[in-house]
Amino acid sequence: MDYFSPAQCAGYVALVLGVGAFLTRDDRRMKLLLSAESVVYGAHFLMLGNLPAAGSAGISAGRTYLSLRSRSLWLAAAAIALNIWVGLRVAHSGLGWLPIVGSCVATVGFFTLDGMRLRLVLLTSTLMWLANGYISRSIGGTVLESLIATANITTLVRMGLEKARLRAAV
């Protein structure tokens, strides 16, 4: 395996953007960084030949950005329908559906949740993308999703502690 192929290098860039996104407690900043990460991630998986993940990441970029501007359930439904359509076209195995389902789960979260509940739903999506990265032999993707899960859990703990401190102060 070439650790510095263009495909793997794109995965490393996505890694930096994704971890940065989950280290912030600001939902808007997180979504902006995740939009950028998804664009790069899509290119990464396209170069690896994983079309379900590439398509789903591309849709995720637009979906995440739109969720900054709107909480429209119609937009969420459209993103989910588009993911399913991509899945039907290019997912030739059950494993090909991992990124598709992961993106659909995240879509529900982005358009309907915020704060800790959003991050819990995104953790579920992250675990699906982690399995996809490992199966795809994506070095950056596997490290990215592992670190995102860790960063997300860390941020959830920090948010939970802050919430507990605020309750105790009242």
UniProtKB/TrEMBL annotation:
Record-linked InterPro entries: Uncharacterised_HI1736/YgjV, YgjV
Pfam families, sorted: Imp-YgjV
Transmembrane region(s): 6-24, 72-88, 94-113
Superkingdom classification of source: Bacteria
Keywords tagged on the record: Membrane, Transmembrane, Transmembrane helix
Keyword Mitochondrion tagged: no
Protein's recorded name: YgjV family protein
Taxonomic placement: Bacteria, Pseudomonadati, Acidobacteriota, Terriglobia, Bryobacterales
